[in-house]
Known about the structure:
Number of helices of chain B: 0
Order of helices and strands of chain B: EEEEEEEEEEE
Distance between the termini of chain B: 38 Å
Structural class of chain A: mainly beta
Oligomer: heterodimer
Largest sheet of chain B: 6 strands, mixed
Number of helices of chain A: 0
Helix content of chain A: under 10%
Helix content of chain B: under 10%
Radius of gyration of chain A: 13 Å
Strand content of chain B: over 45%
Largest sheet of chain A: 7 strands, mixed
Strand content of chain A: over 45%
Shape of chain B: globular
Structural class of chain B: mainly beta
Amino acid sequence: ETGVTQSPTHLIKTRGQQVTLRCSSQSGHNTVSWYQQALGQGPQFIFQYYREEENGRGNFPPRFSGLQFPNYSSELNVNALELDDSALYLCASSLARSGGGYTFGSGTRLTVV
Amino acid sequence: QQQVKQSPQSLIVQKGGISIINCAYENTAFDYFPWYQQFPGKGPALLIAIRPDVSEKKEGRFTISFNKSAKQFSLHIMDSQPGDSATYFCAASIRHNFNKFYFGSGTKLNVKP
């Protein structure tokens, strides 16, 4: 059973650029959630995808968008990057309506300069 | 508005001692309370979780105590070991919803040999 894998592990982008982060969910999981974790803070919910549709969204602007593919993998896209977008982006997979916890990936460390 | 408040921010415990981390929440609709452990450079990993119909859950050296009336829950790590040194996050969610998690701000635990 494979866990959640994210790519790339580290990324440096310039303010105003666009970035795409990728996530492969754990085998058997059909739901993917994305979180932003600023340095020294707890993860903040960005959005969740289930059956290729956005299934809930946190307090993030529309320049944060995502996709889920038929194999349950997912992408997080961020447009018009700002310095405050520098953070660890975590992908977590779960089984919908299982009521259980997530399995997190190791994250992508994004630095915006 | 922070939905889950966690304390202390950091904690130093001697090997063999008891580590106690506390969390408080406001939303009475929360019905699932997990604790996550995060090592540097890694994503959070589910440690133990509780539902509000029980007041305590124990798994090995880790125990969650839950006080529904006070809207508080805590993690106790018995016989703390240097390998337990990590950042711990409490979280809360509404399971019948899309299972969005609200995380506390984290507690950095340092267990001294």
